[in-house]
Amino acid sequence: MKIKLIRKGGFIPIKKESETEVDWTEEEFNKLAQAIQLQENSPGQKRDATTYHLAKEDKQIIIDWDKIPAKYNKVFETLKSKLDIVK
Q1: Mean pLDDT over all residues of the chain?
Q2: Structure confidence at residue 48 as a pLDDT band (50, 70, 90)
Q3: Residue 14: Cβ within 10 Å count
Q4: What is the pTM of this model?
Q5: In this predicted model, what pLDDT tens digit does every residue of 3-27 receive, in sequence order?
């Protein structure tokens, strides 16, 4: 399955994206998405804050970077390091 990391926001809002192919099952993706989803009105959502979104096909969620399980750190760090500006 193909997943995408999207960076939005910031003081000077610049959208960046990167994507990769992973061998996760649909169930694994859904469990991960539920575990790392940033809840509305949480302290992580501040004005001019940078947010990271995990996307797969038509599903996109805002993630809490600190909740990413260690098993997935390498995937997310690689995606983050390959973020490119989207025009």
Answers
A1: 90
A2: low
A3: 14
A4: 0.86
A5: 999 999 888 888 999 999 999 999 9
What letter represents residue 69's amino acid? P
Q: How many CB atoms lie within 10 A of CB 63?
A: 22
Cβ neighbours of residue 19 closer than 8 Å, sequence gap 6 or more: 2, 3, 4, 5, 79
pLDDT at 44 > cutoff 70: no
- Report long-range pairs for 83-87 (Cβ below 8 Å, ≥24 apart): 83/5, 83/7, 83/16, 83/17, 83/18, 84/16, 84/17, 84/18, 85/14, 85/15, 85/16, 86/15, 86/16, 86/17
Domain ranges of the chain: 2-85
Integer Cα distance of 33 and 61 in angstroms: 7
DSSP letters for 3-62: EEEEEEETTTT--EEEEEE----HHHHHHHHHHHBPPTT-TT--TT-EEEEEEETTEEEE
